[in-house]
Each structure stands twice: as C-alpha cells, then as structure tokens.
Hints:
single chain, about 280 residues, alpha+beta, nine-stranded antiparallel beta sheet, five-stranded antiparallel beta sheet, 14 strands, globular
Amino acid sequence: xxxxxxxxxxxxLTDTQVDAYLARIGLPRPGRPxxxxxxxxxxxxxGTVPFENLGIGLGEPVVLDPGALFAKLVTRRRGGFCYELNxxxxxxxxxxxxxxxxxxxxxxxxxxxxxxFDHLALRVDLAEPWLADVGFGRFSHFxxxxxxxxxxxxxxxxxxxxxxxxxxxxxxLDGRPEYRLGLRPHRLADFVPTCWWQTTSPDSHFTRxxxxxxxxxxxGRITLGGVRLIRTGPDGVRTEEDLxxxxxxxxxxxxxxxxxxxxPVPPAPAxxxxxxxx
Length: 278
C-alpha cells in the first residue's frame, strides 16, 4: 500500500485517563503494541461500550473533542456512534503506543455509498496495517488486515476488502458492501460537518429512531431499538420483546449500564414538500 502523509500528533490521554478507559472496558494495561493486544482491546471495547445515538433524543449535543468524548464514554459510562467511539478509541491506542490514522468512509445504502465522512474508521500500523472499527454496530469482532484482498473469516462473518480506486476500498461483509473506505488520513475535526448533519437532518436515520447495541460475551448482540429489546445469538437466532417505558429504562441499566431518567425521543422528521409544491 502506498505511503501517506500522516496528520501531526496531538496531546493525548493522560496515564490516569488511560487507566480509567481500560477499567471501563475491563482490561489491564497491555504490554507493547501487537496484533494480539490490539485484537483484545478491540473485542473488549465492542462488548462494553455500546453503539448508541441516545443523545439525539435526549437533546445532548455531540462534541467531537477528545475531552468531551472521554467524559461521555468513560466518566459517564455511555456509548456513542462512529465518530465518538472510533475517535476516542484512537486516542486510547495512541496513548498505548500504536500509530493510528482516522479514515473517512461512506456507508452503503443498498448499492449506493453515502456522502464523504459518513463514517469514521481507523488504520492501525504495526508490522502490517490493520482496519480497526468499534463504531459500526454489527461488524468485525476483531481488526481486519488492511492489505489482504482475499476473504477474512472471523466471528462477525466473512469480510473482503475490494479495491475501488487508487485510494479507496469497498469493505464487504458476506458479499454485501458495508462501506467504501478512503485511505487518506484525516483529523477528527474533518468529521464535524457530517456529524452535525447526522445528528440534525431529518434525512439521517440517526434522527428517526433511537438505538443502543453491543456485542455479547458469546458473540451475539443485544439491542434496544426504541422500546423493543432484540437478542441475536451467535448462530443468528433472533428474539424480540416489546417493553413499556419502565422496562426499557431497566433494560438500559441492565444490559448497557446506562441510567436514564426518561426515554430518548428522536426528533420528528420534517415534512417533505409535495411534488406540486416544488
């Protein structure tokens, strides 16, 4: 893979913050950077820090600043979506001695990729480059080899990275495109405009419904979508249960460690103009 210019390093997490972050995901401080240590950090993060967009329905702004992300994900023991989860995970990895770049991606909706900076993923350089992503919901349980073009089979499914252009790869899960990954590094600030769109636009699926999801210990998933609790086993068997408000608040506490005093209410989508009005 061609070399790229990496953005300059910035001041990162303190030792105290690193210890608190590792305690949040249930791991001791690892040894020197290695593929095995990276895989352990990746899997532990997916199993403890949920993918969620609850702040939109609670009226909380999403602030893409490492200090604000640490306060939310570690101090307040919440989760977030890609910009937050991968943004802070990158800071943890850097503090542990990894070389990390932020990569922009375009999530597919059917056969069409979304806008630039639609998603944030990570390139982690060891003896070879790895794709790490703890912010896409259902995805790989472990980092993927970024230079490998053959199928990569792991607990999350079969992943294939297919070249699309000189500096892009299509990431496929079981033959379906998940996102188109750009290979040029970016700063977290570059994702701010699209993050704002994702959290405010009626055309964003994040403003239409609330979700909270994490990987389970056995490799399945548990998800609370609105007031519907969805359990998916590692074999793909799925069960659903509709909860009342009290049950949903209890499920947030039990399954995600999130204590809320009210349920999030996503903004109502704006009315679209009728053809005769345009």
